[in-house]
Amino acid sequence: MNASFEALARPEIRSLTPYASARALADSAGILLNANENPFPSPGDPGLGLNRYPDPQPTALLDRLADLYRVARERLLVTRGSDEGIDLLVRTFCAPGEAVLTVPPCFGMYALSARVQGARVIEAPLVEHADRFEAPDDLVERARDCKLAFLCSPNNPTGNVLTEATVREVGRALDGRGLVVVDEAYVEFQHGDSFTTLLDELPNLVVLRTLSKAHALAGCRLGTVIADPAVIGLLKRIIAPYPLPTPTVEAALAALTPEALATQARRIAEIDQQKQRLVEALRSLDSIRAMWPGEANFVLVRVADAARLIDDAAAAGIRLRNQSAQPGLDHCVRITVGAPDENRALIAFLETWTP
Question: What is the pLDDT of residue 33?
Fold first, then answer.
């Protein structure tokens, strides 16, 4: 194992003997009497063999994800959504009192996972501009003493994208001291490459990907940690024995065939077209005081009274997300791009809504 990553991990993790499940010790061939499973299928089983435990890290799924993300299979760990990947990273590398960087406003699970672990949260707030948010000038300085630096690109809920220069600077500042973690949950919607292209250049870079958003599998809860194999090995020491349910794996495999990926690409293009129409409509409304389109499948807007907009929209059968509790986002609302009829209903509602 890479000694530098071993040294970064918590002492308890370094000395831990991982639990070895029955499937980790032996495959599912032959007569299976090693896992205390029920030999008879459940009446509720649709033919997936759910009476048997699944492969902890399914080879066929890893192969398809490696092709999709253009990385070596040894760099991958599949998890129960990106939330589990975030939690594993914090539990592996952060002892109580050590620091984790977040760049708010951003996805709340970074700070929550850190605080549950007893880690300190250091914030480097984004800088607001009229049409975009940007990383602060002191981002690298604030990250310097952190074990983990969580960066989200495209960011949720502002939609801004980080530059390669920014990620390089943070990664180099933490070289030998910590990891820079880029959450790319929305990367398929942006106009640019994934930061996985920097993995060879920055050994301490970790990239999080998910099938929830662009691949429309939010209900399956399947995420991927992409990192140096030594980091993956450390995370495997504490991951649950069977993180992925069999139906999740089957749905993911079906979503990653060439035909399914072609359909997905067409739908992403359709979402992009719908977003442009939504943005144009929002720009014409007096009730929208500011808007940040960003590069994801949502738009962030500011109105005079966010709580009232949320309530009035709900009364009309439309659910929006109030972001006012986030730092710097007073009276801001996040609007997900929906299907054409859903977007038309939203626009019709907003055209008559007054704060």
Answer: 86
Report helix angle 340-352 to 258-283, nearest 10. 10
Helices (H), the chain: 3-8, 11-14, 22-25, 59-69, 81-93, 109-116, 139-143, 164-173, 229-236, 246-255, 258-283, 306-315, 340-352
The radius of gyration computed from the CA coordinates of the chain, to the nearest angstrom, equals 22
Say if strands 298-302 and 290-292 run parallel, antiparallel, or are unpaired: antiparallel
Mean pLDDT of 46-68: 95
Q: Parallel, antiparallel, or unpaired for β 223-226 and 321-322? A: unpaired
The three-state secondary structure class of 109 is helix
Q: Note whether 152 and 107 are within 8 A (CB).
A: yes
What number is the average pLDDT over the span 224-243? Answer: 96
CA distance 104 to 293: 17
Which domains are present in the chain? 3-21+56-256 (3.40.640.10), 259-352 (3.90.1150.10)
What secondary structure does DSSP assign to 44-59, as a single string? T--SS-TTSPPPSS-H
Classify burial at 349, counting beta carbons within 10 Å of its beta carbon; exposed 0-12, middle 13-18, buried 19 or more: middle
Question: What DSSP designation does 240 have?
Answer: -
Measured in degrees and rounded to the nearest 5, phi and psi for residue 348 equal: -60, -40
* pTM assigned to the model: 0.95
d(CA 221, CA 219): 6
d(CA 227, CA 82) in angstroms, rounded, equals: 14
Q: What angle do CA 346, 349, 353 make, to 5 degrees?
A: 135
1 confidence band (pLDDT: 50, 70, 90): very low
